[in-house]
C-alpha cells in the first residue's frame, strides 16, 4: 500500500523520508514539485498526482506537505486519512507539528512511523497504543533516561493491541479522577449582500479529556438528542445503545479524544449571532474607494461575543488602505491584499467599526468584484443549537470522578458576501 | 589521532564482518572514501560496550537515514548490534537493517539467526517484531526461512503475531511470487481466524496475493460481515472493498426486477420511518400479488452485508465512510442508497484533501442518482476561501443537481460566483451555466442573455469563455439569435483569446445566412490580420472563407482566394493542408469535379449540437472511492468491479460447518457412507442465522422493505412447510383449518419451489439419499421437509420412508422428546414468514403440542420410549425456542421458553425456563452457566448446577435474565464438564413486560399522560379469522405479556403492562371498526419498545 513518505517544507526541501518497502528514490518528488509550481497556492496542489510508475498522494498541514508514494490501487481516502492521522499523532506527541519540531525529534518520529505501518499497511494508529510502544519525549524522561539508561521504547506489547477496547490502555491510575467534555459548535454560514442568510448550518463536536482510573464505563445522555441529525463517533461509542436509546455509552480512551461530531438538522433555524454592516465602494474615475464595516450582535442569547476577527481578501486593484478602527487593531498586507481586523469583544452599546479609504491603482478601472468578509468569533457557555448534556454517569469503578462540561460556539466558515 | 586504530579496525570490519581484526591497509581505503572518515566516530561508538553510546550512534544514523543521507557503509558496524540487549538500540538496528539489507544482502544474512531466535521468544512483541524484520529484509536467499516463519507464526497463540504473519505474506509474495500456492494456504488458514485483529490484515494479504481466489471467502463471508464492526478502521476499508467485489460475483442485482416491486414498495420506502409497519403490510400484499412473477429476492447474505456495514457510515474515519458509501452505491437496492448522502455530506467538513476525493465521488454519484443529494444542495455552495480545485468540483456537483425546480437558486448562486476574483473558477462557472442551459430548456434563454451580458465584462478570460459557451448554446437554436451573432461579430475587434476568436468565426461561418451583410466584412478584417493569428483562428478563417465562398461567392471570391494563398505559405502544415484541400473542393477546376459539386453539402451540412456533459458521466464503471475512479484511468493493481451475475451462484457455499463435525463423522462412519456437506448442517445453520437476524428486523428503523421479507422466502418456504405440516400433525386446537393451511402451503411451496429449486430439488434428493440417516429425527425431519417441498410429498410419508432406511437400534436410543426440538425451533423462524408468525401460535402450552406430536410419531415409528415427564410440566408461555441443537450440543439439546411467571429472585428479570435433554448415550455432567458476554445493563441470574443428566433424561431449570428493556440478545456460555457451548437468548419484545391490572379510568388517565411522542398508532385490517373477541385477545396476549383492561365498548380492546426493568407503562388499545378495519395504539415511554410492539402485534393479528 503506502510505499514511502516524504515530508516537504514550503520552500521545497525534503527534510524527512521514510520507506516501508523498497526504497523509492526521492526524485519521484520532482513530479510533485512540478505540480506545486503549477498550482499558485499550496492548497491548490492536487492531492493525487499520477506519475509514470507511482502515485503521489499528499496532504498539506502546518505548512508541511506530507507526500505518500504508492504504487498500486489503494482507496485514496485510505492514504489521505492515514496521513492526517500521522499529523495528528505528531501533534499529540510533540504538542505542535512543525518542521523544526520534527527535525529535533527525528528519531522518535522515525520510530513512530515505523510502528504505524508495516509493509505499508497500518499497524498501530491509536495514540494510546503508540504511546506505550514509544513514549513521547519529555524533559523529565530525557533526564531520567540519561541517568538510568532506560529507554523510550516499551518492551511489552501494548495491552490495547489485544483487548476488546484497543483505544484504552490498562492500568491507568490518577489521583484526581476527572472527565471534561467540551461541546463546541461551529456555525457555517453564507450571508448575502443584503444580510439575509443563504445557508447556515451548525456542526458540533464533543471533545473530551478523560483522566479516570481503571476501566470506567461512561454514559452521557442529552436533554434533546433529537437535535443531532447526523453523527459520527469515536470507535469507543456503542452504536447499538445510541440507535435504541440515544445515549452515548463508552469506555473512554485515556486522555484527549474526540468523542462525537455531529450535524444539527437543517430544519432547525440557525440563529446567527452577529451581523456585519458594510459599505465598500469603488468609484470609477477616482483612485480612492470608501470602506466601512460595522459589526454588531444579533441573536446572542444574552451572551457576549468575544474573539471577533474580520478578514477580507481585497481586490488586486487596491494599493493601500488607510483605516481607523473604533476598537482593536487592523493590518493590511499590500502584497497579498489581505485585510485583517482583530476586533476583540463586541460591546453592544458601542459597536465596533472600521472606516477609511482605499487607494486604488491609478488609471485602472474599478474592480468588478467586491471582497467577501470572513468572520471569526467565539461565544462562551453557549451551544447555539440548544444542545444540552443531561447527565454523565460512570459505571464499573467505585470512585467519584469530577465531571465538567463546557459549551462554546464558534464561527466556522462564516462568510459575508458584499 | 585517536581514531586511527579504530578506523583501520572498522575498515576491516566492512570487508569481512565476521573477523574485525582482519588486517587491511588503512591507506588504500582512505584514499577513495572520505565517507569512512566521516563515520569513524559512529563506528567507534557502535563498537563500545556502552549501550548509551551505541544508542547515541544509532540515533544519529537513523537521523541520517531520515534525511535521506546514505549510511550504507556503516552496515557491518550496525549489524553487529542486532543482538544488543538494549531494546531501543535493537529497534533502531532493525530500522537500519530494513532500510539497507537489500543493498548488502550477504552481510544481512548474519542477522538472520538472531531473528530466528527471536521467533521463539516467549514475549509476543519480540516474536512479532522478529517476524516483521525478518520478512522485511528483502533478501531472496532467505525465502524458505521466511516461509517457515510465516507458517509457524500463522498458528501462533498470540493474535498479534498472527497479524504480523498476515502482514508478512505480501512481503514474501513480492519477493518471490513462486511461493503463491503455499502462501494461499496460509491465507486460507488465517482467513478462518476469528479475531478482529487478524481479519483486516489477512484480507489485505488476500487482496495482494490472490484476489481472484474468491472461493476462499465463501466460508468466511458471514464471519467477516459479523466481525466487521469491531475490526480496526483500516481493516474495515479493505474488507468492505473486497466484499463489494465479492458480492458482485455472488448475488443478483437488486435493481433488476425493481420495476415489479416498485409500484407497491417504493411508497413504503419513501415514507417516514414510522411507516415501516405499513410498509411491511403493503409489501406482504405485493408479495401475495406477485407470486407467479418470481419477484427479486435478495439473498440473506447480501442483506447481511448491507445491514452490517450501515452503522459504519457513522465512523469517524472518512475512508471507512467512503468505503461503505461505495458499497451501498454498487450493491444496495436503489431505494436504500439514499442513506449514504448524509454521511458523505458530513465529510465535506473535513480537510480539503478529503473534500477533494469525496466531491469527486459525489460528482459521479450525483449524475446517476441526482435525487440523493438534492436535499443537500446548499452544502455544496461555494465559499471564497475554498481552494480552486474544490470550488470546481462543487460547481460540478451543483450543475449535476440543478433541475427545473432549483435552477433559479442555483443560477443566483452562479451569478455571485462570476464576480469572484479567481478567474479559473469564473471560467468554470460560465461553463456550468452553459451546461445548465442545455440540460434545462426552461432557462436556456435566461442563461443565454446572462452570458451575452458577460460579453461586456472587462476581463477577457470571462468574455472568451462566454463566447465559447454561447457558441455551443447557439448551435441548438441558431435561427432566433441573429442578434447575438451580430454582437459577437463586433467583438472580434477586441477579443484576443484565440479560442474565443475561433468560436466567433465558426459561428459566423456556420450561420452566415443569418448575418449576410456582416459576414463578408468580418472575413475582410480577418484576412487583413491573417498572418498574425493563432493557428486555430487561421483554420477557422479558412473555414469561414470557404463557407462564404459557397454561399456568397460574388462578394467574397477574391477575399477567399487571398486567404487561401496566404494559408498556402503558412508555417503550419495543418493550415497548408487545409488550404490546399479547401481550394480543391470549392474552386471548380477541370479535372476534379465529383467532390466539388457536393462542396456545399460538405461544408454546410447541418451539424448536431454538441452535448455538454459532465466529465464524470461514465466514471462509475470504476469502483467508486478507488484511485482509478479518481484518476479516471486504470491504476496498477486495480481489480475490475465485476458485473452482476445473471444467475446467482449457489448460496450454500457460504454455509459453515460446525466444529462438532467430528461427532457426526463417527456416525457417518457407522453407516459406512460419507458426504461432504451434510444437508442438515446447512439447515440448522441457516436457522441459527435467522434467529440472529431477527433483532435487526424488529429494531432497525425504516429497514423493512420488500426485499427483506422476500429474503427468507424461497428457502424458508420449505421450512415453513414442515412447520405447518408438523403443526397439522399436532393439530388439536383446530385441525380442520390446519389441514387447509397445509394444502395451501403446499400449493404455495409448489409454486415458488418449482421455479427456484427444480434443479435444486433433484440435487437435494439425490444428495439426501447419501446423507446418513442415523443422525436421528431432527435431521430427518428437516430433510423430510425439504424433500416434501421439492416433491410435494407430505412430511409423513417422507418421514416413514426414512424410517425404513434407518436402523431401528439407533432409533431407540433417541428419545422422542428430541422430536419436539425441531418443531419448536422452526416456530421461532416463522416470524420472518409472510404467513404464520410465532405470535399466532396458540397459547396452548407447547407441551401439548409436543405430546401430540410425539404421540403421532409414536404411532408412526412404533418406538416404545415414553415421554419424559418434564416436558409435560405445565408451562404457560409462548412456544419453545431452541437454544442448542442436539447435534451442535453433542447430544445435549437445550430449549427455552418464556414462562411469563415473575422471577423469584429479582422482579426485573424475565424468567426463562430452560429444558435440557440428553440424547447422547453417556450421561452429561455438571451443567452450569459459564462466563457470559453481556451487553451493558443486561444481567443473568444463573440456574443451579445440574449435576448429571442421564442419557435419555430431561431436566428443566429456571434462570432469570434482566434484558434491561431492550431486545438485545443475552449471550452466555453453557458448560458441561467437558464442553462449552455459546448460546444466546433473544427476547421478543412482548416478553419484556409484565401485565398490570388497572381500571378503565386509570387506563385512560395514564394514556392521557403518554401522548405525543410516546404514542404510536397504526391502522390495520383484521382478517376474517380474527374478528371474534376471543381470538383477538388471545392473539394479543400471546404476542405480548399484557393484562387485559376491562372496557365499556365492545369493539375496543385494552391491555396494560409494565416493562420489567424500568417499570414504564405499556398501554395497548385496539379499536376494531366494522368491516375489519382496526386501529392499534400503543402508548409507552419506551418508544422503541412501543414501535416494536406495534409491529409484532400487527403481524400477529393480520395473519
Automatic annotation (TrEMBL), chain A:
Annotated Gene3D superfamilies: 3.30.450.60, Mu homology domain, subdomain B
Topology in membrane: Peripheral membrane protein
Assigned keywords, A-Z: Cytoplasmic vesicle, Golgi apparatus, Membrane, Protein transport, Transport
UniProt record similarity statement: Belongs to the adaptor complexes medium subunit family.
A single BP term in Gene Ontology: vesicle-mediated transport
Keyword Metal-binding: no
Major location category of this protein: Golgi
SUPFAM superfamilies recorded: Second domain of Mu2 adaptin subunit (ap50) of ap2 adaptor, SNARE-like
Record organism: Callithrix jacchus
Protein known as: AP-3 complex subunit mu-2
Function: Part of the AP-3 complex, an adaptor-related complex which is not clathrin-associated. The complex is associated with the Golgi region as well as more peripheral structures. It facilitates the budding of vesicles from the Golgi membrane and may be directly involved in trafficking to lysosomes. In concert with the BLOC-1 complex, AP-3 is required to target cargos into vesicles assembled at cell bodies for delivery into neurites and nerve terminals.
Pfam families: Adap_comp_sub, Clat_adaptor_s
Gene Ontology cellular component terms for the protein in this record: clathrin adaptor complex; cytoplasmic vesicle membrane; Golgi apparatus
Domain MHD span(s) in chain numbering: 176-417
From TrEMBL, chain B:
Gene3D superfamilies assigned: Leucine-rich Repeat Variant (1.25.10.10)
UniProt keyword list: Cytoplasmic vesicle, Golgi apparatus, Membrane, Phosphoprotein, Protein transport, Transport
First-listed, main subcellular location of the protein, grouped into a coarse class: membrane
Region annotated Disordered, chain positions: 1-30, 685-823
GO biological process, one term: vesicle-mediated transport
Ranges of Low complexity composition bias in the record: 723-734, 777-795
Membrane topology label: Peripheral membrane protein
Biased segments, Acidic residues type: 710-719, 735-746, 796-805
Chain ranges of the AP-3 complex subunit beta C-terminal domain: 822-968
Subcellular location field: Cytoplasmic vesicle, Clathrin-coated vesicle membrane; Golgi apparatus
GO cellular component, one term: Golgi apparatus
Biased composition (Basic and acidic residues): 685-696
Function recorded in the entry: Subunit of non-clathrin- and clathrin-associated adaptor protein complex 3 (AP-3) that plays a role in protein sorting in the late-Golgi/trans-Golgi network (TGN) and/or endosomes. The AP complexes mediate both the recruitment of clathrin to membranes and the recognition of sorting signals within the cytosolic tails of transmembrane cargo molecules. AP-3 appears to be involved in the sorting of a subset of transmembrane proteins targeted to lysosomes and lysosome-related organelles.
Annotated family: Belongs to the adaptor complexes large subunit family.
Protein name: AP-3 complex subunit beta
Gene name of the encoded protein: AP3B2
